[in-house]
Amino acid sequence: MPIAQDPLSVEVTLPREDVALLTVEGYLDVDTATEFQHHLANQLHHGRRHFLLDLSAVPFMDSSGMNIILRVYQEARELPGSVHIISPTPAVRRILDLTGVSITVPVSENVDEALERVDAPGAPAGPEA
Description:
The chain is α/β, with parallel strands linked by helices and 129 residues long. Helices cover 40% and strands 23% of the residues. The protein has helices spanning 33-45, 63-78, 90-99, 101-104, 111-119; strands spanning 9-16, 19-25, 50-57, 82-86, 107-108. A five-stranded mixed β-sheet has the order 1-2-3-4-5. Helix 1 (33-45) runs parallel beside helix 2. The protein is globular and about 35 Å long.
């Protein structure tokens, strides 16, 4: 009998017309990644160019979650737009760092910091060295 996990919860708010803030809660893994991907695709479809991903309530993320983040990052860059990860839990931050995702996709401490990065002209893709 499989172990029941908490379902994924994704709340979408719009700090600005072209910016979607997705607050994710729960495990972001192979079982829930499709739901997360649908939320992102819906925001892309509605013309959002910048994506703020609040992962402060995600205790675990596997490669499925990372792949979706990298995929939306690629799609957003072509718009042009951006993706920013906000306040990942220590376990998720460790995975992002070990895989190099945090070098590609900027990680911010809060929404305001991420919005500043969205507004910064010619801002570097990753965190400052």
